[in-house]
Amino acid sequence: MALVTSKEMFAKALTSDYAVGAFNVNNMEIIQGIADAAKIENAPLILQVSAGARKYAKPAYLIKLVEAAIEDSGLDIVLHLDHGEDYDICKKCVDDGFTSVMIDGSKYAFEENIALTRQVVEYAHEKGAVVEAELGRLAGVEDNINVDSRSASFTDPDEAAEFVERTGVDSLAIAIGTSHGAYKFKGDPYLDFERLQKIRGLIPDTPLVLHGASTVLPEFVELCNKYGGDIPGAQGVPEEMIRTAAKHGVCKVNIDTDLRLAMTAEIRRILFEQPSEFDPRKYLGPGRDAIQSMVRHKIKNVLGASNQR
Ligand code: G3H
Ligand code: 13P
Ligand code: ZN
């Protein structure tokens, strides 16, 4: 049991049909719920921290909580920076003990993205950490663009091959139609699997990463709405599409929104049904349980990662 890099996890996932779940963490209950789920399912695990999470919980707390999860669960866990926006935050996280960082240069032009990623790779590799980069842009429905311009921002397979070759990056996040948050598609869900297969064919040894992979299960949206929420029109990536992606080179699947929905639905239910309750343990505890069952469901039924540790 230790903080590990994703090297071995990805090497195994690359030659199999499952993907490793990378779950966003922000506090103790979320970390406990996820780690317990991975332990029960005997699954590989990546815990990831966004810049927002660092700001909310402070890096020292999150790192210690992840170390506690390792000690308590006996699991090997990857501690990963999600969407690092510049060299400095990636360096800081590597120095703090993160075993993996994402440098997200997707908003830059190709050459700039390469230069920035290369710089992070050099530093991280020297310190024994691994690096994820992103090529192509994840457009959300809120960007209000049509299908053609949406796919114009998808990852170009030839560029992906050149990018990996020139940066030496360990894994690559690709854009094939997913997006962050609870509003992913206006019409029918669509992922460009042909493009995924082309990318996979050109860089068969590079683990691919799917961001924006929450499925936004209707029952959780309904629950949130039933107890006083209002999130109309939420739509995620259908579960079978995530399964298909896992079979075509996607080794890491990022999930945040589904955890938020599961935890919030349960907390809303409790406070709605027991309005006089004010002991935080009485709603955060069940919130933690809701995270655990959501993560177990993901690992088992969507990622196919049970017993792949
Ligand atoms: O990709 C973004 C993740 O869902 C993290 O979200 O920046 O609100 O922590 P956040
Ligand atoms: P979701 O919003 O679909 O959960 O995606 C999370 C993500 O990609 C984190 O990097
Ligand atoms: Zn993301």
Brief account:
With 309 residues, the protein is of the alpha/beta class. Helices cover 50% and strands 13% of the residues.
How would you describe this protein?
It is a single chain. The protein is of the alpha/beta class and 309 residues long. The protein has one domain: Aldolase class I (TIM Barrel, Alpha-Beta Barrel). The protein is built from 13 helices and eight strands. An eight-stranded parallel barrel has the order 1-2-3-4-5-6-7-8, surrounded by nine helices. β3 (77-84), α5 and β4 (100-103) form a beta-alpha-beta unit. α2 (28-41) packs parallel to α13 (280-302). It is globular. Bound molecules: glyceraldehyde-3-phosphate, 1,3-dihydroxyacetonephosphate (13P) and zinc ion. Residues 83, 180, 211-212, 254 line the site of zinc ion.
Strand and helix layout:
Blueprint: H1 7-14, E1 20-24, H2 28-41, E2 45-49, H3 51-57, H4 59-73, E3 77-84, H5 87-96, E4 100-103, H6 110-126, E5 130-135, H7 147-152, H8 157-167, E6 171-174, H9 193-202, E7 208-210, H10 218-226, H11 239-247, E8 250-255, H12 257-273, H13 280-302
Parallel strand pairs: 1-2, 1-8, 2-3, 3-4, 4-5, 5-6, 6-7, 7-8
